[in-house]
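[step 3/7] inverse_fold.run input=structure_tokens len=118
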């Protein structure tokens, strides 16, 4: 902003283009008015650009935040699925022993029942 103002001030000839009025105000030449008007338009454009850049940065930060949340959700889901898989494998191993025990019991009961048929 100061660069725009300095450019405008440098393009006006202060000894010729600016005159002090009787009421204490100043009158500027047409060239100075045009330069000031152009500077104000450019200043407004720069302000809009800054606002758009701020919005872009906010959206980028929001995207990063959502990305981190998705990553954390994926980590949590992976940990839970791994725990369930481990629990399933442990249950399967225990089921094998249970099936073996039931098989032995059925065999023993079958032999005993066959002995009772005599």
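[step 3/7] decode complete -> sequence:
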């Amino acid at each position: 902003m100061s660069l725009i103002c300095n450019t405008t001030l440098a393009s006006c000839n202060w000894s010729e283009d600016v005159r002090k009025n009787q009421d204490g105000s100043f009158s500027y030449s047409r060239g100075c008015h045009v330069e000031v008007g152009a500077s104000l338009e450019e200043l407004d454009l720069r302000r809009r650009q800054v606002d758009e850049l701020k919005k872009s940065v906010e959206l980028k930060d929001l995207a990063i935040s959502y990305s981190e949340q998705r990553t954390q959700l994926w980590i949590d889901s992976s940990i839970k699925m791994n725990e369930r898989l481990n629990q399933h494998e442990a249950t399967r191993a225990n089921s094998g022993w249970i099936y073996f025990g039931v098989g032995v019991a059925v065999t023993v009961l079958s032999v005993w029942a066959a002995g009772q048929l005599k």
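[step 4/7] annotate
The longest helix spans residues 30-116.
The chain has a mean pLDDT of 84.
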